[in-house]
């Protein structure tokens, strides 16, 4: 029976070691997933902060665009008022067959824009350039006519200056609008990275939870095995003590029996040896 208990204890000891080792492996794995999760969460925060910075810069540039548009439109409105005065004067005193300077200028701007943004064959582009040159020559001719009048010359000079200022501001509007779009695109990209990083962090957290739960279960099994081992140790220890006590009792009985025989022989007149005396002392017969 004792041997059976010892064998069973060995099995529980081996099982206990397996649960302990597996628990330690799972705890190490959980720690690894926790570190990955924390790193990814930090990356997510950085991406969100970066996105917020780009958002602020985008909104700032969009605000500049709106403000500059208002300034540009104000200069254009002032120029248009003067050009309308010039057109009225021209119709009254000049050649009525010619189109107004403002209308021709708009057409020039339209054609120049097409030249910059569209693809033409060599012949078509040359034709477009010639058309622009003709229109500019027409503007110069009409302006030269208007400059003959002092008052109109002053208005023309002011109108040109307003138009120049409006054109410069329009360049700023374009630059600011492009910057706003760039920051908007970077903001969207940063948010996309943040979403991807957050998703990966969630996955690592899920793996962490699963590993931690498995480690806890292995720890419970380890504790249960430890309890079984303590119970087996108590039973085995008790049996060993009982076996030892039984063995001692048997030895004592054998010694007593042998001592009684020697004592009987002594009483019958036999001599005692030193060993006989020691045996009689052990049996407490002398």
What can you tell me about this protein's structure?
The protein has about 290 residues and is an all-alpha fold. Helix content is about 90%, strand content about 0%. It is built from five helices and no strands.
Q: Which secondary structure elements does this structure contain, and how are they paired or packed?
A:
Elements: H1 2-93, H2 101-117, H3 122-146, H4 150-267, H5 274-282
Helix pairs in contact: 1-4, 2-3, 4-5
Please give a handful of descriptors for the protein shown.
286 residues; mainly alpha; Helix Hairpins; 91% helix; DUF7121; Phosphoserine phosphatase
Structural class from helices and strands? mainly alpha
Let me know the largest β-sheet: none
SSE string, helices as H and strands as E: HHHHH
CATH-level-2 architecture of one domain: Orthogonal Bundle
Rg for CA atoms: 54 Å
- What's the CATH C level of one domain? Mainly Alpha
Shape designation: rod-shaped
* CATH fold description of one domain: Helix Hairpins
The number of helical elements comes to 5
Helix % is over 70%
Strand content: under 5%
Distance between the termini: 40 Å
The average pLDDT score comes to 83
Task: Give a brief description.
By secondary structure, this protein is mostly helical.
């Amino acid at each position: 029976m004792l041997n059976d208990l010892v064998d069973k204890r060995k099995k529980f000891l081996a099982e206990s070691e397996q649960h302990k080792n597996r628990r330690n492996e799972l705890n190490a794995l959980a720690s690894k997933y926790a570190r990955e999760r924390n790193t990814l969460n930090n990356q997510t925060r950085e991406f969100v902060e970066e996105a917020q910075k780009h958002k602020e810069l985008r909104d700032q540039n969009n605000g500049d665009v709106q403000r500059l548009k208002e300034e540009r439109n104000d200069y254009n409105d002032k120029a248009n008022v003067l050009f309308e005065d010039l057109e009225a004067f021209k119709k009254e005193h000049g050649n009525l067959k010619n189109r107004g300077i403002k209308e021709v200028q708009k057409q020039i701007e339209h054609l120049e824009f097409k030249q910059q943004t569209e693809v033409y064959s060599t012949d078509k582009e040359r034709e477009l350039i010639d058309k622009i040159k003709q229109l500019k020559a027409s503007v110069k001719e009409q302006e030269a006519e208007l400059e003959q009048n002092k008052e109109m010359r002053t208005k023309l000079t002011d109108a040109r200056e307003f138009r120049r200022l409006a054109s410069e501001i329009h360049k700023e509007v374009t630059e600011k609008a492009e910057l706003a779009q760039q920051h908007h695109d970077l903001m969207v990209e940063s948010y996309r990275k943040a979403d991807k990083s957050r998703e990966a962090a969630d996955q690592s957290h899920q793996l962490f939870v699963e590993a931690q739960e498995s480690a806890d279960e292995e720890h419970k099994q380890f504790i249960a095995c430890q309890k079984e081992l303590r119970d087996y140790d108590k039973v085995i220890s008790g049996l060993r003590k009982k076996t030892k006590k039984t063995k001692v009792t048997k030895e004592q009985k054998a010694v007593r029996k042998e001592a009684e025989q020697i004592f009987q022989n002594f009483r019958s007149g036999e001599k005692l040896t030193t060993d006989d005396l020691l045996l009689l002392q052990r049996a407490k017969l002398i």
